[in-house]
Amino acid sequence: xxxxxLLINILFCVTTIPLNYFINLPFYSFAVLLFTIxxxxxxxxxxxxxxxxxxxxxxxxxxTFIILTPVMWFTNxxxxxxxxxxxxxxxxxxxxVAEGKKLFFFLLLLFIVSVSLIIIGYIHPEYVTKYPxxxxxxxxxxxxxxxxxxxxxxxxxYFTNQFHKYNKKLNESNFELExxxxxxxxxxxxxxxxxxxxxxRVKNNLQMVSGLLRLQYNTIKDKDLRNTLQISxxxxxxxxxxxxxxxxxxxxxxxxxxEYTVNLVKNIEISSFTDKKNITINLHSEHSIIIIxxxxxxxxxxxxxLSNSIKHAFNKDGGLITVEGQVSDDIYSVRVxxxxxxxxxxxxxxxxxSLGYKLINGLCEQLNSELKIKDLKQGSEIGFxxxxx
Length: 389
Description:
By secondary structure, this protein is of the alpha+beta class. It has helices spanning 2-22, 27-50, 53-75, 83-97, 100-123, 134-219, 223-248, 257-272, 292-312, 355-366; strands spanning 254-256, 279-285, 289-291, 319-328, 331-338, 372-375, 380-387. Among the domains are: 2-132, no CATH class; 254-389, Heat Shock Protein 90, CATH 3.30.565.10. The strands form two sheets. Strands 2-4-5-7-6 form a five-stranded mixed sheet, with helices on one face. A two-stranded antiparallel ribbon has the order 1-3. Helix 1 (2-22) runs antiparallel to helix 6 (134-219), helix 3 (53-75) runs antiparallel to helix 4 (83-97) and helix 6 packs antiparallel against helix 7 (223-248).
């Protein structure tokens, strides 16, 4: 754009020289125009072949406003001459090549120069060179108006052309971006399918291991060993339940904790034969979305607490276990209560050394939580809470 503006300015100067000659303007106006043609030509060379277009256009605008405009103003009959139209064109050219703070500065400079010329011409009319005749004045104003009008038409054509080119490039960019988005969307869908398949296979493998433990459990008569196999199976089922929900869910990062807890409790009821032991588990859980890592830790802790209650809290008559889950201010609070025998008189959590209790403590540390154990008048209550996000 800078090169085009320079060529247009050179063309205007060249066409102005014969016009000034015919209307008998002072010689120094010709000298300024010739110097300007030479200067603009030099600027064009620097801009075109040296790549200094930004510096060149800034110098050109300043020269045009401070030197060329005053000279041509006073030698072309001032406010009554044709050069006033050129000031409008200079402003249009400035809008075309400048931007930001520079644009504001150049327009302010043009305004100050224009107002100053009008004031000086009014105070000192002798500084203004009058046209010899009315015909010369009319010819100059008409010619200047035509040249400026052509310049404005060119700018309109140029900007329209640039606008169409910009729209074409924008449409091409949008088309390429849409293609990339489609490719990315396809890749994301492929990865989601693969992740679903991974969770499905992990779930199947864990269920296979759980099934093998169940088969082994049915062939062993030793009570302690059967108990160990059952605990291991329930832990595996607690982890398997997470992968099963992930396989069925559209969201591969978050899971509804209530849905998971319902499935976990059902599996524990089945594996622990709670119906035969007259043990009932009541669940009251609120819906909340939780990330996978915390859900696995939560599930293993709840599995251990329910398993312990089922095995140690009741006599042969059975009883009731209540699981409560509540959400408040991004904190999920869990309470497991039973109406069984309660805690032993010599119960001391610091002296517990079982694998299950060590597992619970380790998982609580992962959740930045700790167990709260209460001995009730009838039964006991164990709770913990953690941040779900």
